[in-house]
Amino acid sequence: MLREIADQFHNWVKNRSEKWGAPVLDAPQGRRDEFVEPYFRQAKPDQLVVILKAREPARILTAIGNKKDNRWHLQLAQRWVIQYNLYVNDRHWGRLFVRLSPYFPFSARVCLNQHGRNARLPHSHIWGRAPSDSKLRIGRGSPPPSHDTHETVLAFHRCFETMTSKNLHLGIA
User: Does residue 140 have a pLDDT over 60?
Assistant: First the structure.
C-alpha cells in the first residue's frame, strides 16, 4: 500500500508539472544551483521554474513483517529514494526550493537562498553592509538578525498563500 501511494505521488508530480509548465528533469551530477540557473533567467515572481528528480537519502517508514502470519509493524529507516526538488522564484524570498519525499511520512523541506533574500532587504538590515557601497565589512561579535522571527513567519505565510492561490497545492507538514 505504501508503494502505491509513492507511485501515485510520482504520477501527480508528472501531471502537475505539465500544468505548471515546469519540466521534470533528472538532477545533474554537479552543482544544482548552476544547473537551474538558466530556468530562473526568465522566471516571473512566484513561478515554479523546474523540478529536479534525484535519488537522495531520506528517513522513511518501512513495513516489516510477513504475509503468512499477516503480522506487520512500521519501522523508520534511512534509505536512498527518489525525491523531488521544486525550484521556485518567490517574490519575497527569491530563489528557493522545496524538497518533497513521496515516501511515508512524506517529509518536506524548504531551502532558502539567504543571499537572494538579503539582496532584497534594505542595506541597513544586513550586518556589515556599508551603506555607501556594496562591499562587506568584517566585524566582531554576532551579527544582528537581518529580520526578526515574526517577519520570517509572515513572509512564509505570504509565500505559501501565493503558491496556493496560483494552484500550486503543496501540503507541508
Answer: no
